[in-house]
Amino acid sequence: MAISARRLDLLGYGASALFGAAAFFVWAGWTFLDPRNVSWLRTGDRAMHTLGWWFYRATPWSLPIGVNPRNGLEISSSVALSDSLPLFAVPFKLLSPLLPTEFQYWGIWFLVSMTLQAVIGYAIGRQFQLGRLTSVALGACLVVTPAFLWRMPVHMALSGHWVLLLAIYLYVRQSPPLRWAWPLTLALVSAVHAYLLAMVLAIWVAALARRLWMKQLTLAGALLELGLGLAASLFVLWSAGFLMTSSLGAEGFGFYRLNLLSFINPYGWSLVLPHLPGTSGDYEGQVFPGLGVLLLLVLGLAVSARRLPAIIGPRWLPLLVVVLAMAAFALSNKVVFGAKELFVVPLPAEALNFASMFRASGRMIWPAGYLAAVLAFVLVARSFGARTVAVLAGLAVVVQVVDTSGQWTQFARMQPAPAAAWPTPIQSPLWLFAARHYDKIRAIPVSRLNHRWAELSYFAAFHGMASDAAYLGRRDEKGYARLESLADAALTEGRFEPDALYVLDPAVVPAVQRFMAPDDMLVGADGFVLFGRHGRAYARADDVTLPAYGVPALAAR
């Protein structure tokens, strides 16, 4: 009995999902799905994302629901601005009483992202009437995309590239999507990452223009969708806490940019192609599609270049315009080719301030990279018979996988053994004593990034304390100024907060000693200098003997 087209498509979706899941297990391994395995999350931005979740989990509910005041104190913002993935953080916080203490959801997120990358890739292929096997191959190549795989362990929430594919899918649908589809997509993306939202918003604007141009949408319908989409997005952004800082700008625009060679520069993700010269920050514009896709694109352009003028029309021109605009922004105002800066476009201060909201402008090339991969498959499919196309698509997957294989298992190989805790130098019982009597940790002097922020924040997060030694994706400059003011008042006027444990640089100890009272505590522990108002009084009440300053031991009578 013949299998219906619907069931064949379900098989295609299933095959794509299996490929995405299998790719996850090859790339990472099952231990990353263990919610208590946190050892691989203790370095770099992964630590920031994870600590943001751990602080947030223990924070009482409030409005907006993403507020995360214990992670940074005066410079704190939200679970969104530590890039801790509100889409997962909020529901898992609801389940928090049922979860283990060290719970992490990043392994689940990676599995979901890789699976959806393949599934939505298949859906895009079917909208272009590609064969089912060819569509499965397209989804597979979109999973084995260096720009995607490299990003995942670096900026974890930002690796949700499937939301870009979802926006492309809604645009390329042969029939217009339901009215709620775009507002729901925008709400979803708003709970993932602001950079991804900016790209999806651009594609949505193109989709509105296309449907108006082709008379698939009335002006009233477009205004209604516009209102619903913006309202849904703004509500989620506000709720998650993306809007909690008054200074969204940051340094880096013009440095974290797209290199004109990025499309053919594998950045080490090819066994065949060499790494090309570049500049320090252009890794953010990595867009190499993989050798399999690149060869397929060259073949498609060679045999079907005559079809390209068709994109200059109402169906594709709006998308082309916004993608080119994002590509131009990705280049920034400092255009580079390889290791050479070609020219600088002078911009007024207002434009630079606006652009600094998305300082890593190179990322804006991602939609163009994914569309180039789709174009490669479509051009080949329009030029050869179905069987030939399926063979070529299959070969593209094989080439893609083999050529990137040198990097496939590198991530898992470099990670420490699974563990339910981070190694930490904080071992002295003095810390536990302090945690019973102080509500927060403050580091003096204040620095943009305290080099021991992860150790201090890790202790604070699991002992019911707040900490101003924090690392955040976006930091409120006004809050930072308040933090500096508090530190200055402590050192020059002795205004130390009674509920704060101060972690001091040895250089500021003489200034602190000028304001010490007999009941205050100044001790050394695990390479840190700790000061706390009334610490010795607390020790007497607890029947604990504190050491003299510089002695890292703690004895209990």
Round the Cα radius of gyration to an integer and report it: 27 Å
Instruction: Give the N-terminus to C-terminus distance in angstroms.
Output: 83 Å
What is the 3D shape?
Answer: elongated
Helical content (DSSP H or I, runs of 4+): 40-55%
**Approximately how much beta-strand content do the residues carry?**
5-15%
Query: What characterizes the major β-sheet?
Result: 5 strands, mixed
Can you count the helices? 21
Tally of distinct domains: 2
Uncertain residue segments: 551-557
Largest sheet, spatial ordering of strands: 4-3-5-7-6
N-to-C order of helices and strands: HHHHHHHHHHHHEEHHHHHEHEHEHEEHEE
What structural class do you assign from the helix and strand content? alpha/beta
Q: What number is the mean pLDDT? A: 91
Care to count the β-strands? 9
Which SSEs are present, and which pair or pack?
Layout: H1 5-27, H2 44-57, H3 86-94, H4 106-127, H5 132-143, H6 146-151, H7 162-172, H8 181-190, H9 194-213, H10 219-240, H11 291-304, H12 317-331, E1 334-337, E2 340-344, H13 349-355, H14 366-381, H15 386-408, H16 410-414, H17 429-437, E3 440-444, H18 453-461, E4 466-467, H19 477-493, E5 500-504, H20 509-513, E6 521-525, E7 528-532, H21 535-541, E8 544-545, E9 555-556
Parallel strand pairs: 3-4, 3-5
Antiparallel strand pairs: 1-2, 5-7, 6-7, 8-9
Structure in a nutshell:
By secondary structure, the protein is α/β, with parallel strands linked by helices. The chain has 21 helices and nine strands. The N and C termini lie far apart (83 Å).
